[in-house]
């Protein structure tokens, strides 16, 4: 992992300012131009393209740095996809939460098919904060059962894993999508798949922090302090 000095090297602005603007953009329903105005009120002239570059760079870094601190999720997976617009076309954001609403994992995909579903479950199962699922609750997407069956055949999932397609039990993940959609709505779609992926990593990471999934962030203030701390920033 890069040190603070490597990460913020050659940046024109202080590291705390960079992380502040990135955090605001990923956590609240704000456009880049909203943040430009807010920073101008603080006496700082920062262009919206600069803030955009910071988000693309540091959004994934937040996701990477909080992973070791994530508390364990439970073994009841609630899985669903939502739509994200990229270059004027709808792409698929695979997401899973546990029965308490804690984020298990997420993955942006060009396609909504068996291979994408399998990739998503493989990613979720590889994350140290997740347990092997006892039960997986799905929507009616027909790609899921064959993907799960392949993972059972490959002994990635135990054959005892219960799979159920029950819409009302998946309300918890559909409700959780709303937060992500609320943040992405002012963005008016992404220009490239890569920038969508980079930004969504940061949005999902901030959402996990706000849900209390990371250690040492029991209040809003301590969450901010904790994030600065894991980036090596002393304010």
Automatic annotation (TrEMBL):
Give GO terms for biological process. Answer: DNA integration; DNA recombination; transposition
Q: Which PROSITE patterns match?
A: INTEGRASE
Q: Name one Pfam family in it.
A: DDE_Tnp_IS240
Example GO molecular function term? DNA binding
Residues in Integrase catalytic domain copies? 68-235
User: Which UniProt key words apply to this protein?
Assistant: DNA recombination, DNA-binding, Transposition
Instruction: Supply the NCBIfam families for this chain.
Output: transpos_IS6 (NF033587)
Briefly state the protein's biological role: Involved in the transposition of the insertion sequence.
What is this protein's record name?
Answer: IS6 family transposase
Species per Swiss-Prot/TrEMBL record: Paenibacillus foliorum
Its lineage opens with: Bacteria, Bacillati, Bacillota, Bacilli, Bacillales
């Amino acid at each position: 992992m890069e040190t603070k000095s490597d990460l913020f090297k050659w940046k024109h602005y202080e590291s705390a300012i960079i992380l502040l603007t990135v955090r605001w953009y990923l956590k609240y329903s704000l456009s880049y131009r909203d943040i430009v105005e807010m920073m101008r009120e603080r006496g700082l002239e920062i262009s919206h393209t600069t803030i955009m570059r910071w988000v693309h760079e540091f959004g994934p870094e937040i996701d990477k740095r909080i992973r070791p601190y994530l508390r364990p999720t439970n073994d009841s997976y609630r899985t669903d996809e939502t739509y994200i617009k990229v270059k004027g076309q709808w792409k698929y954001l695979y997401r899973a939460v546990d029965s308490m609403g804690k984020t298990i994992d997420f993955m942006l995909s060009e396609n909504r098919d068996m291979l994408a579903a399998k990739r998503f479950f493989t990613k979720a199962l590889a994350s140290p904060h997740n347990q092997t699922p006892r039960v997986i609750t799905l929507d009616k997407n027909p790609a899921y059962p064959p993907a799960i069956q392949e993972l059972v055949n490959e002994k990635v999932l135990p054959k005892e894993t219960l799979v159920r397609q029950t819409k009302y039990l998946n309300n918890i993940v559909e409700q959780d999508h709303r937060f992500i959609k609320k943040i992405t709505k002012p963005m008016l779609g992404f220009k490239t798949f890569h920038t969508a992926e980079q930004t969504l990593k940061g949005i999902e990471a901030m959402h996990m922090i706000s849900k209390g999934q990371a250690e040492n962030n029991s209040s809003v203030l301590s969450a901010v302090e904790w994030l600065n701390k894991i980036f090596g920033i002393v304010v």
